[in-house]
Amino acid sequence: MDSNLTLTLEALASCGCVIPSEHRAGLDISLKIKKMDAGLQSLAFWGRIFTTTGKDYLLAEGCVSAKRIGRKLNFDLKYYFSQNGVQWLDLQAPLTEERYELCKQCKGPFTGDPSNKFFVIPEPPQPSEFDEMIEPALIGDKSGSSPTDEKGTTLEEEQPEPVTEDESTAPATEDEDASDEPPGVGEEAKVIEDEEVVEGEEGEEGEGEEIPKGTEVPELERLAALMKMVDEDCGVVPYNALVMTPANVLVKNTTFSGPKFIDELDSYCHLFKGYHEAPISKDLPGTWSIHAIPLQRDVIVRSLLWPGYFMYYSDTGKDYGSGYFGMGEKNKDIAFCVP
Amino acid sequence: MAAMSVEDALAYLKSMSTTTGDDVFTHISEIVRSVLQAKVRDPVDIFETSFVLKQTRFVSREGEKPIKEGRDPKDVIPVKSFFALFNQEEIVPKVEEEKPKKKEGEEGEEEEVAEEASAEEDEEAAGNEFEAQNMLSDSVFFDACGCGIGRLDTYFVILALKQLGDDPKFGIETVRFFGKFFGINDNYYVFESTLKEGAGEEEEVPEEEEEGSEGEGGGEGEEESGESKKKKGGWGRPSDGIPMEEGVGTNANVYWVCHRPGDQYKKLPPVTPLQINTARQLKKFLTGNLEAEVSGYPQFPGIEINYLRAQIARISHATQIAPSGYYSAADDEGGQTLTPAEDFEMPPAVDLGTLEAWVHKNAHIPKQGRCTKYEAPEEEGEGEEEEAPEEEEEAKEGEEGEKDEDEEPEEPEEEPGSLRTLDQDKELADGVKAWSVTYSSSIKGLKHQVVCLRSHLWPGAFCVATPTGFSNIYVGYGLKNEAFQPTMPPPVQKEYAGEMVEATDLPPKPEPLKEEEGEEKAGSEEEGEEEEE
Question: Whole-model pTM above 0.80?
Answer without folding.
Answer: no
